[in-house]
Each structure stands twice: as structure tokens, then as C-alpha cells.
Amino acid sequence: MTQHNKLQAWIKECADLCQPDEIIFIDGSEEQRNKLRDEAVMTGEIVPLNQKKWPGCYFHRTAQNDVARTEHLTYICTSEKEDVGPTNNWMPPAEGYRKASEIFKGSMRGRKMYVIPFSLGPVGSVFSKIGVELTDSIYVVLNMLIMVRCGQEVLDQLGSDGDFTRCLHGKAELDVDRRMILHFPEDNTIWSVGSGYGGNVLLSKKCMALRLASWQAQKESWLAEHMLILGVEDPAGRIEYVAAAFPSACGKTNLAMLVPPEGLTRKGYRIWMVGDDIAWMRVDTDGKLWAINPETGFFGVAQGTNSITNPNALATVRRNTIFTNVLFREGGNIWWEGLDGEAPKSGIDWKGDPWTPDMKDKNGKSVPGAHPNARFTAPLTQCPSHSFRTEHHHGVPISAIVFGGRRARLAPLVYQGYSWQHGVCIGAMMASERTAAQFGKLGEVRRDPMAMLPFCGYNMGDYFRHWLQMGTRMKKAPKIFHVNWFRQDESGDYLWPGYGENLRVLEWILDRCRGEAPAEETPIGYVPTSDSLDLTGLDLPPNLIEELVTVNPEEWLAEVESVREFFATFGDRLPHAMQDELNSLERRLKTQQKMSHNGING
Ligand code: GTP
Ligand code: SPV
Ligand code: MN
Questions:
Q1: How many distinct structural domains can be found in the chain?
Q2: Other residues' Cβ atoms within 10 Å of the Cβ of residue 452
Q3: Is residue 425 a part of any domain in this protein?
Q4: pLDDT digits (tens, 9 = 90+) for 61-87
Q5: What pLDDT score does 602 carry?
Q6: Which of 257, 367, 578, 588 is positioned for an S-S bond with 359, CB 3.0–4.6 A?
Q7: Residue 600: its pLDDT value, please?
Q8: Is 63 inside a domain boundary?
């Protein structure tokens, strides 16, 4: 299968450690996939859904303590602690290898080890990187076959001495006390042990395409980002591409799969989905930023997905999809909270227990049938709005970069940075409420620069510097914006309808990039004037847009203070430009505050 001596030696080394009964190369063939599926069905690792209704679809339940990424067990192992910065857990490489080896040792006895060669990006593209994941989980293999380009063509591309990222995964005992997700950027190696959940074990995804890739991108002058990519085709037939970074479970998949509301469809708008989670971007010879989605699949949040919020997602998951931790129903059906129609009368919940919709926990709260972080794994090409550009080795040119978080207060619906440098500071200041995508306290606001807090594989002070430098390398840099779909009123209801209606904001953003939409200057950046968003067909309360773009200087000054504290944690690794931008922002806010105290409308 391969003439690559180093690859063979590494596989042998890992097999000596883990002691699998057998080693199987994944060739990418349908035949092999079917065989593995059958085997996993036999053991109960996956359960077929009703194949008439859900052709090619399967259900999987993870261990109860293993339902989201475990950031506190995720480490970057480098020789110098300063290189990972204050936002990452650090361990010396030797200690990481030693501790994880103890868990890996003999852990695959009685199991098989699968060898998955994969390419992030189209095989052979200048963007692309190759990895090889070794795993003892068929569930991982079946997911990887959807999420990335796998198999013999990748080995052929690797040849006899190509570079590849070494990814070792073992389920071991699935014990949270013996779980470690370790990254060794200096060795181009990832070790993950003791988990069976998505982002912890599909090592191509967050571990390689973000943590290791961000490290490589800094050295090689490109960007590896937690961003969706979509194309907006306007009424003139012109397609412009937007890359947007929102933290986990904050709307990337939904925005990427956007279906235009009636009014904008009639106007002639169409959306093309390129990617929903990760973007790799490089400056091309034309001085523009070009992007690819390195993946070929969605690993999307089930909760809240329905035919109103995201019809394209529902169409995407009708076949060839793996559902993880949803509610399982008799007759091979599934359900999750927020799906269309009424809840089923009964089912087996994500824990494997009998469930009915009226069940309450000891605090009187409804017991969910699906885990809030239940996910679907489905091929990109099944999305009705899938872009033909995903196979292009060249990617797509990016006109606008959008940052966004989940903020009940403060952050307006949309605003635009004054410059690339200001835009980088907007990204660096980002914060969001914690969601179910990671283990921890829900709802707590935490700083999450560029939505990369859990995914930047090196010191974030250096990461900001790298972003600033990328700006100087572009002749036509994308404009930078910030959005917030999640502003709430006093009773906790969302003020903005969101989902498909978000296209109205994208329209303004792209018009701004061409210098064609009016805006008002505020201390934090440009916001839309009250009549510059096309709201045709939307029935909103009067003055809602004004309310959604209001900048409250007192609240923002408090935010500046909290950002200042956060920036201070980077010490002298923080670029001066970030401090300068923050000081200028504070000055502008104080001026506005003074003006409104004096009764002058700023
Ligand atoms: P990851 O896969 O974890 O990176 O998440 P993501 O950023 O792709 O988030 P996703 O699109 O899956 O959305 C997460 C949750 O936010 C879902 O429950 C959505 O229904 C909800 N959501 C997405 N967009 C909007 C929006 O515009 N408004 C509101 N109110 N909710 C939204
Ligand atoms: C995220 O949490 O941002 C995800 C899911 O996209 S996971 O693959 O688990 O990281
Ligand atoms: Mn994500």
C-alpha cells in the first residue's frame, strides 16, 4: 500500500505500543466502507436507521462522560512554555509522551488498528496538507471517510518520502481520568487517548486543521481559521465570498447553509456553501486573500435544526449521515430538541435510557432527549447550496471577514472596523457565551479571540502579530466586520430574527466592501444607517434596528476594561498595535460619553 519507509516505521512503533491484533489500511473504497459499517452494526457500535426513510444513515451513542471537547484535557506540548501562551494548557513533550504512553500501552489488544491516510484540501493543491490517523475506532473511520479525503490517492500523493502529520488515537477505557488530547507541533504529531467524541478524536479537524495548522501557518505565512466560507451571488450574478469566525455552536453551519428569505430571493440573491467550520487562507499573486475549506463534510449541531431555521441542513442529512447522541426512536427514527413538529411520545435518550417528553429532572427542568451537543456527520456535496468551487485547488477570493459572538447585550447587530489593524483588534476583543460544544459552565461570557481560543496552537500574542503582518502582505485586504445575531430583550427573547434573515446583514457588508452602502460612524466602528438594511418583507417592531446598532459608551468602557485585563495576560508578546487600538477606542468612547452628557448627540 505504501513505499514510505518513515510512515511504515511510525505505524510499527505505534503498533508496538498499542498492541493491536491486526492493522488495516483504509483505501477509500465503497467496498471497504460497507464492510466496516457491517462490522460496526454487528457489534452495536452503530445502529442503522430505517433505511427506507434514512438511506445510508446510522446512529451512534458516545459514553455519557464523553459528549463534547474537553478543553481542560487538551495540551500543546512544546519545549518552551511561553510558545503556547496563557490561553493553552502546556506540558513538556517528554512528559506528554510518557503519560499518554502509559495509557496507550497495550490498549488495542483484542482490537484492530485502522490506518487512515487523509488530505486536508484537494489532493495536490498548494493549500493542502496530508495526515495519517491511526485509530482503534470504526466510528472514527466512518466519520473520517465523510469529513476528509481519505485513502489510496492520498498515499500515492505522499509518495515515498512526503511530509505528513502523525495522528494517533486510541479509545483506551474511555475514562475521563485517563483522557489526554496532546499536540506536539515541533514533531508534527497529535496523540489523543481515552475519548470517542468528535473534536477529540477526528484528529483532522480541530487538532490538525486548526491547532497544528495555525502553528504551521504562522511559520509559512498563511492563516488557519475557525471560519465558515460562503459565496453570495447578487442580482447581477456576481459571486463574492465571505469568511466568518463564530465560536463553537454560535451559528457557522447555519450561516454557511443560509437560504435567502423570500424578498431577497425575488431580488435575485443566491447563496453558495463552501465550508462551515474551517478556512485555510493564503495571499495569492493578485494580492488578495484566497480560501479553501480543507474538509469534505459537516460535523454539525443537531439541536435547533429544523425546516424553518435550516432547511438545507435537513436536506443534507437525509442520507449517508451518522447521527451522534440524538434521541433514538422505535422503528429506526431519530429526533432532537427543536426539530419540526411535536416531540415524539417516547424514545431512548442520548444516555440510552427510556424517555418521554414530560420527564423532569430533580430541579423541575425538562430532560432533553438528545444531548445539546448531539451532531450529524454528512458529506458537503449533499447540501443543496453546495458550491462547485470546493474542488478548485485555488479556493475562492475573500471580500469580507466577519467576526461574531453570542452576546445577549452590548455587541450590535453589525459593525465595520476602520482598518485592517482595527479589524484585527475587533477580532482579538471577541467574547461569547459558553455553549454545549465544550465542557464547562453554560452561558458564562468568555474572551474568545477570532473564535480561536480553544484552537490556536501557539501564543495568541504572536497570533495577533501574525494577523497584523498578513494585512501588510495584501494589496486588497478583505474588510473586517463584527456581527451579533444573539441580542436579547429583558425577557431573554432574541431581538433579531436571525437565520435566513442574516442575509440582509451580509448584503450591507458586501455593499460596504464596494463602497456602496451608507453607514454611521460610532466609537466602535461603522454601523448601518437606519434605512441602509433592506428589510423588505420583514415585520419588525419600530426602531428595532436603531436599538440593535446603538452603542452604549458606559457598557463599552466596561468592556474595554475587561479586554485590557485580558490583553495584559499576554505581557510583552502582545503587539503594541493592539494596545494602541484599544486606547483609541477608549478615547473615542469617552468623547462620545462627554458629548452625550453635554446633550449633544454623538
Ligand atoms: P460548531 O459546529 O460547534 O463550530 O458550531 P457552529 O458555529 O457551526 O453553530 P451552528 O450553526 O451549528 O449553530 C449553533 C446553534 O445556534 C444552533 O442551535 C442554531 O439553531 C443556533 N443559531 C444559529 N444561527 C442563529 C441565528 O441567526 N439566530 C439564533 N437565534 N440562533 C442561531
Ligand atoms: C466545535 O466545537 O467547534 C465543533 C465540534 O465544530 S468539534 O469537532 O467537536 O470540535
Ligand atoms: Mn467548530
A1: 3
A2: 24
A3: yes
A4: 999 999 999 999 999 999 999 999 999
A5: 45
A6: 367
A7: 67
A8: no
Residue 601's pLDDT band (boundaries 50, 70, 90)?
low
* 417 falls within a domain: yes
Give the list of residues 6+ apart from residue 557 with CB closer than 8 angstroms, or none: 586, 589, 590, 593
- Between CA 477 and CA 484, with CA 482 as vertex, the angle to 5 degrees is 155
Domain that holds residue 326: 298-382
Q: Are residues 421 and 513 in the same domain?
A: yes
- The tens digit of pLDDT for each residue in 97-119 reads 999 999 999 999 999 999 999 99
- Cell 486510541 locates to 170
253 and 183 in a common domain:
no
Query: For residue range 208-226, what is the model confidence (pLDDT) as tens digits?
Result: 999 999 999 999 999 999 9
CA 212 to chain centre: 15
300 CA → ligand 1 middle, Å: 9
Q: Supply the residue whose CA is at minimum distance from atom 5 of ligand 2.
A: 199
pTM over 0.85: yes
If asked whether residues 425 and 566 sit together in one domain, one would say yes
CA atoms within 13 A on the CB side of 157: 23
Q: Kindly identify the ligand whose nearest atom is closest to the C-alpha of 251.
A: 1
**250, 383, 425, 456: the active-site residue:** 250
Among 226, 250, 307, 486, which is best to mutate for testing ligand 1, by the most ligand atoms less than 8 A from CB?
250
Q: Which of 301, 306, 307, 383 to mutate to test the pocket of ligand 1 (most atoms within 8 A of CB)?
A: 301
Domain identity same for 77 and 150: yes
